[in-house]
Amino acid sequence: MPEPLNLHQTLGEGWCITVAALRAEETLHRMGVAEPRDIPDAVRLVADRLSTRRPGDRSVLLLAKQVTARWTMALELEATTGWVGLDHAVLSRLSAAGGAACSVMSDPNQVNATFAVDGQVNATLDLISGRVWGTPPEPVVATFGAGGPRSRTDLTFSQRAAAVLEAMTGAPVDAALFFEDPWKGGLTGNP
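Request: output the structure for the sequence above.
Response:
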């Protein structure tokens, strides 16, 4: 099995990636995007938004794409209102009615994974310290073994986050996933 992607090298230091067992449009709706649309050249749009100061603009660009028939991945690179994907109400909506969702995030000195099942946030895994609150899904536990994330000294913290995404979705996470269209997306101001 190939080594998990180093998300810091690919996306930089600050990001939140959410996976949900929903279609892309529904994932975006539940994350607060009123009218998801196709986003051509998503990489350029993100770069433009990150390099342009917008005083008073609290909107956040959310991008989503289907990574398997079951799973959608949503990407956010701006945290102007906090990470939308980490909001417990958002994770509850994404996992409602027997669903599942997971958000991994990186901010300075933090790399975490938070899990929700059937409308309830049920676990958080600190991918740096290895601390666990609640019970992460079995595929994630199996990825790290009995020693938890700290036992995987062969992986960077952001590679541990990529391993969580792969365990949740069963799909490989590689750089092409982030840099190739198609993406759907839109703006949200608050979760």
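Residues 111 and 127 are 5 Å apart (CA to CA).
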